[in-house]
Amino acid sequence: MSDVPSPGQAVSFHSAIDAFLQKRLDAKLDKLKPDDPLRPDLIAQHQRGPWLESAAKRVLHIQAVTHALKPVHPRARGTNFYIEPQTLPVLSEVGSHTLGHDFAVDVVGDAAALDVYKLLKIEVNGHSLLQALKAGDSAAWKALSEDPMQAQVLGEAFLGLIAERGGEASTHVLAKQLYWLVGEDATDDTQYHLIIPLHATSLSQSIYEELQDARFGEVNKQARQARRDGLPHEGIYREYRDLAVQKMGGTKPHNISQLNSERRGDNYLLASLPPRWKGERNYLPVHAASIFDRSFNARPLVRDVVQVLSAFLLSDPPKNQATRQRVESLVDALVDEMVIYAGELLHQPAGWTRDERFQQLARPEMLWLDPFRCELEDEHQFASDWLGTDWPTQVGARFGRWLNGQLKGRLPTVGVAESRQWRNILLDEDGSWVQQLRALRNQLHVPEYRDLQEPGDVLTTVRGGV
User: Under 8 Å CB-to-CB from 122, ≥6 apart: which residues?
Assistant: First the structure.
């Protein structure tokens, strides 16, 4: 044990153990009537001395592990291992060794004895009781009993949870077994090693926690929303597609292990599939005068929305508010796709439009799609144009003409009025496209900007914030 006493921490561990026992007792007493004859026995069993002595005996029925057999098959019997990840050989592949010192310990064995592990998990000052006992912290040992001899007996029993169990390693007929050729003669049975793979339960827990955070964590939710809105975001967006969930233990996940019980039997499986190649989504406007010539129109969602919009207008819907809302909703979907498209192009190096392949691209679209070109040292004119022209209106007009062109094949009556309507939806001050431009303005830290509203078809120069 440590020679340095820490009485303050001893009191803390002592109090934590008392609180743990009291909570368990209260949960059981709440289920009994006040005059139930079982109450005195329960109270006696949950006194510190008797309960810890019982726990020290029951700890033999459970084992702390990092690699377990039961997840391979729930009825398999054999050896489990507790191996701290930092002691494993370092490999280039992902494995338990990548966990280092930060890993979750799992427990297997008699489910009725798992309350012992819950006791050893209680924390004081960021360290569990089990960790403190293993480190030889005198405070933790003293918290078990005032009698040093009794504390020694209890502490050693509890440390048996992570100790190597005696006997030779064994496996079971229901466990996985692989014969691995280590010699040259595949016909010689003596030239094979028998490999018994175990489930890396601590690694599975780490993967589960990462995927849960990616799916439901608040930070990733914000990144996901920024991606949907096509807005810049300082964080990293994480997404794991085509996940599968393997349920272990059925209705009794605690029969597999403690961590499996905490996960309600859920174990994520990452997709292990050959790639399904798709065309490049971020179509660059190579040798094009406008993205509306080819690249934007080639996006699958754009084609689908245009088809739905034209079909709806062809149905001769009534001229009422519901129709207007339906049309605006479909056009907003196209605007959102413009925002996403522009957001994807933000990943291109600043000044990508200076490449000779993009010299035909219209100036308003260059200003829209390559905004960080403003920050390059030799691009003062570009920055001035970004600040001082009505390019958002010109992009809006191009969008309106493009959408009219898409619809005229089926709806020859669309004209100037409709084009202005599409443009106005794009330039709506509360719309996603204008919001993206405002976010870019803030990110570029420019001293003045062009108001993105459209009074009298002329953008008004203003100063300050949005």
Answer: 16, 17, 20, 128, 129
| Positive or negative: CA dihedral 359, 361, 365, 369 | negative
Rounded Cα distance between 440 and 349, Å, is: 15
Neighbouring CB atoms inside 10 A of 225's CB total 12
Distance CA 434, CA 452 (A): 7
CA–CA distance from 443 to each of 339, 371, 439 (Å)?
16, 10, 6
CB-count exposure of residue 76 (10 Å: 0-12, 13-18, 19+) = middle
CB 174 within 8 A of CB 143: no
Question: Token match 């969930």: residue?
Answer: 245
Q: In the structure encoding, which two tokens stand for residue 197, read together? A: 């793979």
Tokens linked to 51:
């309960």
Question: Which conformational region is residue 174 in: left (phi greater than 0), alpha (psi within -120 to 50 degrees), or beta?
Answer: alpha
Rounded to whole angstroms, the Cα distance separating 235 from 215 reads: 15
124, 18 in Cβ contact below 8 A? no
- The tokens for 99 are 């966990």
- Phi/psi for 452 (5° steps) reads -90, 5
Can you name the residues that pair with 99 across neighbouring β-strands? none
Tokens encoding 375: 């920050």
DSSP, collapsed to helix, strand or coil, labels residue 318 as coil
Indicate if the alpha-carbon torsion angle 341, 344, 346, 348 is positive or negative.
negative
Residue with tokens 């994807």: 344
Only one residue has tokens 């496209």, namely 433
pTM score of the predicted model: 0.54
| β-strand partners of 195 | 178
For the chain, give percent helix, strand, coil, nearest 5.
50, 10, 40
Instruction: Show pLDDT as tens, one digit a residue, over the chain (466 residues).
Output: 443 334 444 448 888 898 998 998 888 888 888 888 888 888 898 888 899 999 889 888 888 889 998 898 888 888 888 888 999 999 988 899 999 888 888 888 887 888 888 888 888 888 888 888 888 888 889 888 888 899 899 989 988 888 877 677 888 888 898 999 999 999 999 999 989 899 999 999 999 999 999 989 999 998 888 888 778 888 888 988 888 999 998 888 888 988 999 999 999 999 888 777 665 555 788 889 999 988 888 888 998 999 998 888 888 888 888 888 998 999 999 999 999 999 888 888 999 999 999 999 999 999 999 999 988 888 888 988 888 768 999 999 999 999 888 887 777 777 788 888 888 999 888 888 988 888 888 777 554 444 444 433 333 333 233 2
Locate 263 and state its tokens. Answer: 């996960």
Beta-carbon count within 10 A of 120 CB:
22
Q: Cα torsion for 110, 115, 121, 125, to the nearest 10°?
A: -170
